[in-house]
Amino acid sequence: MKGLNDEWIMEGHGDFNFTVWRDYFQENKMNVQQVNWSDAYKLSKHELQTIYKSIQQFQVGESSEGKFLIKAAKDYLVDQHDKSYLQALTLFIQEEQRHARDLGLFMKKQHIPIIKKHWVDQVFRRLRRFANLEQSITVLLTAEIIATVYYDALKQVTSSGDLHDLCGQILRDEAKHVEFQSHTIKRLSKHRNKCLKKSISFLRMFLLAGTLLTVWVYHYKVLKAGGYSFLKYFRSAFNEFYRSEGLINQ
Ligand SMILES: [Fe+2]
Ligand SMILES: [Fe+2]
């Protein structure tokens, strides 16, 4: 059976064409697993202490309006006749906003206040504000890779059915986000020679390693309680990184 990746590769007729991804996001919107919000489970004091600050930070990180990303994409697409990337990107941003909304609903139910900003998130946003499309997507890809590990940990930390279902849906979405961003980077960097591609791949690796360390400092409680030692956390994130690099360099 032909997969999304194969279809995407077969599309390669020179344009910055993302109709397959636009269609994927449209279809995914119709197939979101509904969270059973009627679950009456109340987090224990210990569970609450473990996730409280961490979920606040991740929720705010998911809630971007994507204004600068859309601007960077529009600037890039000036010379491209196909605008399907912009449609795919808009649907992708809506998906991240759904994550923020659903995490917010869960937090409200458990009386965890929603915060407006956090400095780590602000740094990420500033980095993207002054970046071109490829740099913006690179920063985003780093966050997507870490999300595939973090939400797997968060899923295991509590006995809440809501949070378990919600993390399951987010994890399915984030795995595809890694592929979407990887494919975008592949398209944006296709004119480069092998040596330059390799150097930029190293830069992505350093960015990931640095961000992983920062995220560990703030979120180790959730990661550890979710079964991730520091080594397992790094290894899991790097497995996802290598999957992404495989897609970028295929
Ligand atoms: Fe997300
Ligand atoms: Fe994502």
Describe this structure in words.
The chain has 250 residues and is an all-alpha fold. The chain has one domain: Ferritin (Up-down Bundle), CATH 1.20.1260. It contains ten helices and no strands. Helix 2 runs parallel beside helix 5, helix 3 runs antiparallel to helix 9 and helix 7 runs parallel beside helix 9. The longest helix has 32 residues. The protein is globular, with a radius of gyration of 18 Å. The chain binds fe (ii) ion (2 copies).
Total individual domains: 1
Count of DSSP strands: 0
Ranges where pLDDT stays below 50 over 5 or more residues in a row are: 8-14
Structural class: mainly alpha
End-to-end distance: 19 Å
3D shape: globular
* Percent of sequence in beta strands: under 5%
Task: Identify the CATH class.
Answer: Mainly Alpha
CATH architecture: Up-down Bundle
Radius of gyration: 18 Å
In helices, the fraction of residues equals: over 70%
- Mean pLDDT equals 91
Bound molecules: fe (ii) ion
- What is the string of helix and strand elements? HHHHHHHHHH
Topology:
Layout: H1 4-10, H2 19-30, H3 45-62, H4 67-77, H5 84-109, H6 119-129, H7 133-157, H8 161-188, H9 194-225, H10 230-249
Bound molecules: fe (ii) ion (FE2) (2 copies).
Summarize the model shown.
The protein is an all-alpha fold and 250 residues long. The protein has 10 helices and no strands. The longest helix has 32 residues, at 194-225.
